[in-house]
Amino acid sequence: MEFELLKELFSWRDILDLLGLTLVFFLFIAFLRAAKGFYILRLLIALGIIWTLSELLNLTTLSWMFEKLWTVALFTLVVIFQPEIRRTLANIGRRTKVLKITEYEERSIDRLVRACRFMSERQIGALIVIERNQNIEDLIEGCVYLDARISAELIITIFYPMTPLHDGAIVIRNDRIAFASCVLPLSKSASLPQKYGTRHRAAVGISELSDAIAIVVSEETGEISIAVEGNLEKVLDPELLKDKLLSLLGVKHEE
Fold first, then answer.
1. Is residue 255 part of a domain?
2. Contact 212/130 with Cβ under 8 angstroms?
3. Measuring CA to CA, how many Å separate 255 from each of 12, 107, 149, 192?
4. End of a domain among 54, 75, 96?
5. Are residues 73 and 146 in the same domain?
6. Is residue 101 part of a domain?
7. How far from the centroid of its chain's Cα atoms is residue 148's Cα?
8. FRET pair for 149, CA 20 to 30 Å: which of 11, 85, 156, 255?
9. pLDDT for 95
10. How many domains does the chain have?
11. Of 252, 227, 136, residue with least CA distance to 183
């Protein structure tokens, strides 16, 4: 008797309607937890498929919800997850953009490594970004234009505590220090240990959004780390840093 009553109250379409609604909320919550640009496209595709099926199967509740809330929800997603959308578009641009050729000399790498060694021994915090093939000006903010020759003394002076330009990153482009005091996008990667602060997250962030190399000198420990393609790696010895930079930048040893 009760089963017959339930059949009268709920048809198979009503049950499917409720299941679809539950799936929509599950996908949205999963997206909130992940909060990465890669999931935006997957989420929108999944919601589009559910909406289409709800229309084809005449699922009243789901169809009504999508018709009323689709525009508002899409606008809300764009506003709230703007950093993730920006990251996704940047990665697309990275694959499709016509790239320029950037050349570096070994002597410049030597000066850079010498500066990192000096700052590491004295626990002077530093963040150095080296452009490769992708222009990163659209990803950085608040920069001071320099266009100076690379020298260990200049790099150390920039990052020395209490100097006007020490709080931020320097950007090296075409074998010259192009900018100083730059603000970089921070990584939201959950894999980064909690001990890492703003410098390390900024280094990973710029390497996630571009093909640039980021070098970090920790103010707390003096440790040197290098970020490439979203991966952060400690460098135990400055000579290893030089070898790694020569390899990543395609610089041949000078005679």
1. no
2. yes
3. 79, 11, 22, 40
4. 96
5. no
6. no
7. 27
8. 255
9. 44
10. 2
11. 136
What are the tens digits of pLDDT across the range 44-97? 677 777 777 777 777 777 777 777 666 666 676 666 566 656 655 655 555 444
Strands 126-130 and 169-173: parallel
Category of 125 on φ-ψ map: left (φ > 0), alpha (ψ -120 to 50) or beta:
beta
Q: How far apart are CA 216 and CA 225, in angstroms?
A: 5
Question: The tokens of 7 are what?
Answer: 């059949």
Q: What whole-number distance in Å separates Cα of residue 98 and Cα of residue 159?
A: 33
pLDDT of residue 7: 55
| CA–CA separation, 244 and 129 (whole Å) | 14
State the Cα–Cα distance between residues 167 and 163, nearest whole angstrom. Answer: 8
Greatest alpha-carbon pair distance for the chain in Å reads: 94
Task: Round to whole Å and give the CA distance between 205 and 110.
Answer: 25
Could you give the strand order of the β-sheet that contains 144-149, starting from the edge strand earlier in sequence?
144-149, 176-182, 169-173, 126-130, 213-217, 224-228, 231-235
Place of tokens 């070898």: 243
CB 200 within 8 A of CB 225: yes
DSSP character string of 109-176: HHHHHHHHHHHHHTT--EEEEE--SS--GGG-BS-EEEEEE--HHHHHHHHSTTSTT-SSEEEEETTE
